[in-house]
Amino acid sequence: MNIALIGHGPIARSVAAHLAQDIQITLSHVIARPGRQDAARAALGVPAVSSVAALPDGIDLVVDCAGHPGLRAHGMAVLRRGIDLLTVSNGALADADFALELEDAAKAGNAQLRLLPGAIGAVDALAAASIGGLDSVVYTGRKPLAGWAGSAAEDALDLAALTEAATHFEGTAREAALRYPKNANVAATIALAGIGMDETQVRLIADPTITANRHEIEAIGAFGRFTFAIEGASLPDNPASSALTAMSVVRALRDRVARISV
User: Fold this and answer.
1) What pLDDT sits at residue 232?
2) Would residue 68 show up in a list of annotated catalytic residues for this protein?
3) Which of 8, 68, 74, 215 is catalytic?
4) Is 180 helix (H, G, I), strand (E, B) or coil?
């Protein structure tokens, strides 16, 4: 399987490193912003282009690792070209108009957009539970201070002065994903798998006493009730991104070529 990545940041580099010895999956190209092709080529060691149109024939799958801007810039073109697309930029679909545009592009190209679980687990159980009906889903995201740097958390809190955990956002998953485009993809993933963007409740916390990103889900419905929590290490060169996000991309790619998958 020949694949192309959108982006050459920490997540893309981690994915490329995991795939380096995989004989069934070949990283063929990377799509970068105009003017950044040389940097992308140096980071991933493959040819770099600045548009989907410049990709050669024979690309089987494209993976978006570039965040909301990357998905917005290239997602529709990938789908319209008839190439399936994987993304971890799930929060971008909080924009209902953009979500519809992606769906229309997928229909036009007879392609599929798959939203990956990224940094969170139990998404399969939540999606199954939604079949029977969910009464409530609550997500709590807790990160160390560095994980909120450069986000809207800085408008609500003096992060540098915090000595104990403090909540800086409470609201819906849609509000969280739109306000925190680099930090709330997990909230959007849970919402899309479960009860919806406007029904999923979200609480975001800055905590100076922890070193890992902690994600918690509590769901109640016809299936019963479950709680799930995970503490994920961040990528070494990006405290806002979970290492598990890159691993989820690799897992999804290997599932595409496996004869038996779980």
Assistant:
1) 87
2) no
3) 215
4) coil
